[in-house]
What we know:
The chain is mainly α. The protein has helices at 3-31, 33-57, 62-66, 69-91, 94-115, 124-132, 138-149, 154-167, 169-183, 202-231. The protein has one domain (3-231). The longest helix is centred in the C-terminal third of the chain and has 30 residues, at 202-231. It starts with a helix and ends with a helix. 32% of the residues are buried.
Amino acid sequence: xxxxxxxxxxxxxxxxxxxxxxxxxxxxxxxxxxxxxxxxxxxxxxxxxxxxxxxxxxxxxxxxxxxxxxxxxxxxxxxxxxxxxxxxxxxxxxxxxxxxxxxxxxxxxxxxxxxxxxxxxxxxxxxxxxxxxxxxxxxxxxxxxxxxxxxxxxxxxxxxxxxxxxxxxxxxxxxxxxxxxxxxxxxxxxxxxxxxxxxxxxxxxxxxxxxxxxxxxxxxxxxxxxxxxxxx
Length: 232
């Protein structure tokens, strides 16, 4: 391999990513504008809630900041993962979008429970570790979380859907097989990334829209509950 080809190969790959993202964005605007807007709204939620948390904590020092599990969630999970969903949506990596959404949901539930710990002197990491030592299953934790924020079984239902359909190997295999059986085609995300969308991807893209919408409603209820806790 010549020096010239070694230099051009990474550049060609980056060019492919950029062109695919532009083409997929145009596809989404034409065929799934609602999904694209929902992802953007999720990013805006992250910015707004992070700003709110900063305004609440701006008079406190760094030690007070690291004691707060929800601040950790907002700054280091919600914000970066919401942007990651947009990036993965544009390169055609739909499975990653659902996986990132699941991570956000599960982390939010755990951080919210950790923020209820009565010992205000603990940092967020020990609080999360104490929560893990309770040996409560994740599904049970999500059930309890839904009751705390007033949404019943909605959080655990969304978590279960994301887990079973998009995280566990069995779910991924089943989705690929179903696509082949029902549409006589392998879904684009099961070939290579980046990949251009086609009409056959619209069902999955619209499914992502519904999942993000459900997550945003859970996020809103969580932050409302958290705000009441901090006020009291």
